[in-house]
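residues and backbone:
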Amino acid sequence: MAVIIKSQREIELMRESCRILAQVHRQLGEAIKPGISTWDIDALGEKLIRSYGCIPNFLNYNGYPASVCVSVNDEVVHGIPSKERILQEGDIVSLDAGLIYKGYHSDAARTYPVGQVSQEAEKLITVTKQSFFEGIKYARAGCHLYDISNAIDRYCSQFGYGIVRDLVGHGVGTCLHEEPQIPNFRQWRRGIKLRPGMTLAIEPMINMGGYPVEWLEDGWTVVTQDGSLSAHYENTVLITEGAPEILTLMPE
């Protein structure tokens, strides 16, 4: 497994790519409300990305037809935007988006409530987000890759949630998907040792019910097999000599 260690110059380009993506996600999050279509969200995402002089890295990636993956309720990831899919009060919606800045990719995802949602849905969103932060406690030089996986699993499992196994996080840099693959569920080996300069897209995908998923006929949309809600939270993270740097997070 060849994991690319980024130079200081590359890290600066990654930082800028991720900083712009954080802005895009903030603006997309502000647009989420009942009555908006998933197509409108995608159109806004593409417009924002291009307004910063960047390229949407999801558009036409292996044939994916949009710039933002918009996944509603039981859709885990890779939902295809549609003018017919209108967000309703009580839905939850996951937005996964990335961009290319001067040849360097960024990748991040967020799950939002649409208007007022059930306490159960709110809890799922909160736990999924927190599981990322539990995982990156181990995203430090000298720790092992699967320490991250095990921490995410340990946290989510106490709530009885299903941790998606068919999809994992990944390295990111001059390619959207680089080595290593980063599972969100327990591993029995330790994995590679983390080193400064690694840039990782860590992305828990958590189901309210069981972990099994299936692909719809469109070949892209992944849904929970049992129809339960699913949430997604992702950031691009830089391994440093000290604490990890979350590159796609806006300053609070």
In short: The chain has one domain: 8-246. Helices lie at 8-31, 38-51, 119-135, 145-157. The domain at 8-246 is CATH 3.90.230.10 (Creatine Amidinohydrolase).
